[in-house]
Input
Amino acid sequence: LWLLRWYVFRMLLGAGMSKLGSRSSACWRDLSCTSTHYFTQPMPTPAAWVFHKLPASVHKVEVALTFFEQLVLPFGALVPIRAVQRFVALAEIFFQLMVISTGNYAWINWLAVVPAIALLDDGLLRHFVPSAMADAAAAAQSASRDGDGDDDGDGD
Output
């Protein structure tokens, strides 16, 4: 799990740093990139049209939130506090699903969603799987913790 958390940190921070580099577009510095983003991306969706029509002030907030997501949020992935990791995971998943909903970047945004799930703990993930599967996982975890002595898996 630690390597997945490290991956989330590096991936997000790298994306944010690329927006601040000397070769990055000036629109990142003046917070205007999303004013053109929605109609210049690959295969925009109907939601992209709606987002494109938002006022310039909303686009500035979107870019500021992008900087928060990519330059501040990654550090939370390394904090060993459950509430912080849950916030980071849910915020990152939300950000990526918003990008996915407004354009087609194929698999690239899913590469950010999947490892962010590693930041979530079993208590939260339990609510997203069928109860029978969650109960079976809890029983297996309990049995392995208790050391039932069944090393060969035959049930004896």
Observations:
- The chain has nine helices and no strands.
- The first helix runs from residue 2 to 20.
- The mean pLDDT is 87.
- The CA atoms of residues 83 and 120 lie 9 Å apart.
